[in-house]
TrEMBL record:
One of its GO terms (biological process) is DNA replication, synthesis of primer. Pfam families: DEAD, PriA_3primeBD, PriA_C, Zn_ribbon_PriA. Its cofactor is Zn(2+). Initiates the restart of stalled replication forks, which reloads the replicative helicase on sites other than the origin of replication. Recognizes and binds to abandoned replication forks and remodels them to uncover a helicase loading site. Promotes assembly of the primosome at these replication forks. GO terms for molecular function: 3'-5' DNA helicase activity; ATP binding; ATP hydrolysis activity; DNA binding; zinc ion binding. Component of the replication restart primosome. Zn(2+) 1 binds at residues 458, 461, 498, 501. This is Replication restart protein PriA.
Amino acid sequence: MNPDILSDMPLSYRKIVPVLLPYPFKEPFDYIIPHDLKIEKIIPGTLVIVPLNQRKEIGVVWQDHVLSGNLSLLSTPKKEKRKLKEIISILPIQPLPRVLMQFIDWMANYNFTESGSVLAMAIRNIRTLTVPLKKEYGWIKTSPLPTNLKITEKRKKILDFMNIPDQAYTTRELTENLHIKPSVIYGLEKSGGIFKQPLTNFTQFSKPDPNFHQPSLSEEQTKATTFLKKQVDKKKFSVTLLQGITGSGKTEVYMQAIASCIEQNKQVLVLLPEIALSAQWTNRFYKRFGVNPALWHSDLGLKHRKQTWMAILKNEVFVLVGARSALFLPFYDLGLIIVDEEHESSFKQEEGVIYNARDMAIVRAKLSSCPIILVSATPSMETLINAHQGKYFHLTLTKRHGGAIMPRTELVDMKIHPPEKGHFLSPPLVKATQEKLDKNEQVLFFLNRRGYAPLTLCRACGYRLECPHCSAWLVEHRCTRKLVCHHCDYSIPVPLECPHCNTKNSLVPIGPGIERITEEASITFPDAKILVMSSDCLNSPKMTAEAVRRIMQKEVNLIIGTQIVAKGWHFPDLTLVGVIDADLGLTGADLRAAEKTLQLLHQVGGRAGRARFPGTVIIQSFLTDHPVMETLIKGDFNQFMIEEAHERKAGFWPPYGRLAAIIVSADTNQDALETAQELGLNAPSRDGVIVLGPAPAPLSLLRNRYRQRLLLRTHKSIAIQPILHQWLDPIKPKKNVKITVDIDPISF
Ligand code: ADP
Ligand code: ZN
């Protein structure tokens, strides 16, 4: 590999450098280079330790005017020289790549935040680099197991869970995921079933073998592959939408593009919407390339992340698969970026720095001069329109691999086939499920709602149990016997009487969550082996890997899950998908409700019939005439989206215009409203700019903060950031009032 480290610049006459610190600072601070530091070692990107308010902090020697490409190492110091502090030392590692610094500045500017906040995301994992870490240990399964090993039920649980070969599992992972005591683990060690190993080297980051296993591709796949390989070879920026029906082999196709990139010794970044997916993805990668890819997500230990971070900086990593934060890794030589399931809203980070990782990945590719592939069966509106307008290349795969056919979709009109009172499974769904279970095939019930019931109501006085800190109902979780707020995690034990009128035993659950569906299913299908998949029970990739193993090995035949099951899973024996409440996302004022519901239901339906047996999707709905339902039956997704887009064109709603949400939050509604109204009065007025609001934000109370919202919409030809600056910069709200800007909000 050939790292593009910046050539040194003549610095002998410059003793002051700008250093960006990982805090909400818009700009770098000036620091003096002391005499005992080698000045030529300090170039833009160098990591240094500097004093900041009596503390030592890691910062990065920044560059002025990155965007204009002028890399002068400093203009005039902003403070008087004698007030400037000195750099303490230089970290003995490579400087950050220049493209990463450009990306950070661009990102900050576009998303209306500070460069320092974005830098914090990029170097968060090395902040403690100088602090020695305590030794961590993990457990590895002995292979083969000793013949005389006594396998108790708890031990079996552990051994089954450790199903990734040679992978070390920490004590915490085992105890938390399996609900066992550490003593069981130690016992198993004594008997020789597992052994202890220091977690020193997590992966060797060895080079994947592009020819390890070459699949034979279909004609369609070959065509798409040839095109993508050409893009990789060009080493230029381009965006390609790879759209193909579920199970058409999109992953197989983009793996070919990855192979090309590996042959050229360039780095590949693959973004997945959900870390839970990384286990199945890694397995697949292993089969194709003979090694594991590097991983990146928040669930990995600090040490693991540090090693990976350093390896990337040293250009030792070839392929990295990760969650959105992987965008900020210090890649020197990216040759390809892939965003799988690009339409997923989890690519949007809604807290801290608000950004859309899909969009930022495109920028990162542009700055790195490499191609990017956006992959989806149901692309987002933005992507689809860009492809239609010829801004993106558009590849389509229309056939499922190996002759599998697309599932047949049936609507069950819940007005005509109502379930029994207090039940949620309609007779047609029950019948179809029983048939599949009898044939030893697998069934999936999908309901996008965690917990037992979304609402608890008093039968006597009509009181609804609400979160005291948020404008949201408390959701009953029967397994923990608690009422929980899904927005702030506030929880109380389920009360025995109504907190309002004190009537005893008057509280009733209203509507279903997946716990309730599980309860009903276990009564309706007493012989079914049920597995629940929701973020409440699958809280780590290893836990998910275990669930996937149980499905693949057919230890279960009825899977009940929330949106986590809708992702890109491949379960060959799954032949029926039942959507319990298809109307769930369609109510409410969100302009994107139809688009999102269609994507979700299409995606979950796509889990059915992916291999030998044909699949069926049964959709329970009260709104059987809704265009979304019609589209699900007819399957013409793109046509629906293009018509939807057309309706947004006139009002220049996205994707035809630019949009920003301005959220004003405060401790009291009064304060939030005052500032929001002030913003309203000073709203920019010119052609092609529209301001809506203020109005209460969708969650008007969140974690004790009252929230008002304004929407700024501009014509596509008008840049939204300068308008925001002009508008918001002069506003000086009270101390407890906070103004947050969300560029390209995903709900509006
Ligand atoms: P998608 O990503 O479009 O949903 P996948 O890439 O997951 O589809 O492919 C679906 C299934 O078909 C997977 O099990 C995959 O391994 C298999 N498959 C796809 N293309 C090929 C191929 N050319 N040769 C062998 N298996 C393939
Ligand atoms: Zn709450």
